[in-house]
Amino acid sequence: MTASEKKCQEELVVLKKEFEEFVYIVSHDIKTPLRAISNLTTWIEEDLGNNADNAILDNFRLLKNRVERLEKMMSALLELSRVNKTEMELYEVNIPKLVNDCIAILDDKSNVDFHFIYNLKNENTVTMGKKLQKVLFSLLDNAIRFHDKEEKNIFVEIIENETDYEIKVSDDGPGIPEDVRDKIFSIFYTVNSKDIVDSTGAGLAITSKIIKLAGGAFKYTPAVNNGSVFKFNWPKQ
After folding, report:
1. What gap in Å lies between CA 236 and CA 107, rounded to an integer?
2. Of 2, 58, 185, 228, whose CB has the highest number of CB atoms within 10 Å?
3. What is the DSSP letter of 80?
4. Cross-strand partners of 232
C-alpha cells in the first residue's frame, strides 16, 4: 500500500467514525423535542375539552401521527448506524425454530399461509443469531405488510451449501414495479405512500447492511406470479 493509499484509508476511517457519531447524536437528541411536541398537542387537546372543533382534533391527530413517524425514522437511522456495533454475538441456533420464532412475533398473521422448504444437513448452526433473526423477521414482515390480497402466501426456502446458506423469502403479492427496483434498498424509500402503508422505509436498507456485514449478498427478483422474491446467502462462520 502506498503512502497516498494509506492516508486515504485513514481519512475514510475518520470520516466514517464522524458520520456514525453525527447520526447517533442527531437521531438520539431529536427524540426529546419530538416527544415534547406530542405531549404539548395532547395537553392542548385536553384544554380544549369536549367543545373542540372536529377539524381541529383531526389536525392534532395528524400532527401526532407525523411526529410518531419521524420518531420511528430517527430510531431506524440510529439502528442503521449501529448495525456493525450491536448484537454481534455468535451462538448456536436451530434454523427452522428461528424462522418460527420470527413468525410468532409478527404483528399481523391473519389470512397468511406460510410454506417452508428446508434442505439442511444440520438444522443447528453457530452464527450471529440476532442478526439473522433481524433479517428474516424484516423480510417476513415486509412480505405481509405490502401484500395486496386478502389471502396471503409467504414462502421460505433455506438450502445449506458447503460454505453458506441460500435463503429465499417470497410472496404472491403485487411485486415491485420495474422502474423503482433500484431504489428499494435506499433508506426511507417506500414504493407505496407512507400514508397508505405504515412503514419507515428503512427495513430493507438495514437488512442489506446486515447481510453485507455477514459477508453475504442480497438481491430482489420478481416472482413468476408477480410477487416478490428476496434472496440472500448467509456465510457459515
Report:
1. 30
2. 228
3. H
4. 167, 218
Between CA 229 and CA 221 the distance in angstroms is: 5
Closest CA to 186 of 97, 75, 80, 55: 80
Question: What is the spatial distance between Cα 131 and Cα 82, in angstroms, rounded to a whole number?
Answer: 12
Cell numbers at residue 53, please? Answer: 372543533
* Rg for the chain, CA atoms, rounded: 21
CA distances from residue 176 to 22, 61, 173, 185, 229 in whole angstroms, order as listed: 33, 31, 9, 12, 10
CA atoms within 13 A on the CB side of 178: 1
| pLDDT tens by residue, 90-138 | 999 999 999 999 999 998 888 999 999 999 999 999 999 999 999 999 9
How many angstroms separate the CA atoms of 101 and 134, rounded? Answer: 11
Give the cell for residue 73.
Answer: 425514522
**What is the distance between the alpha carbons of residues 74 and 224, in angstroms, rounded to a whole number?**
36
C-alpha cell at 220: 430482489
The 10 Å Cβ neighbour count of residue 122 is: 8
pLDDT, averaged per 10 consecutive residues of the chain (237 residues), comes to: 78 77 74 84 84 84 86 82 86 96 90 95 96 96 89 95 96 83 74 57 87 94 87 94
24, 85 in Cβ contact below 8 A?
no
Average pLDDT, the chain: 86
Q: For residue 58, which amino acid is it?
A: D
**In this predicted model, what pLDDT tens digit does every residue of 29-48 receive, in sequence order?**
777 888 888 888 888 888 88
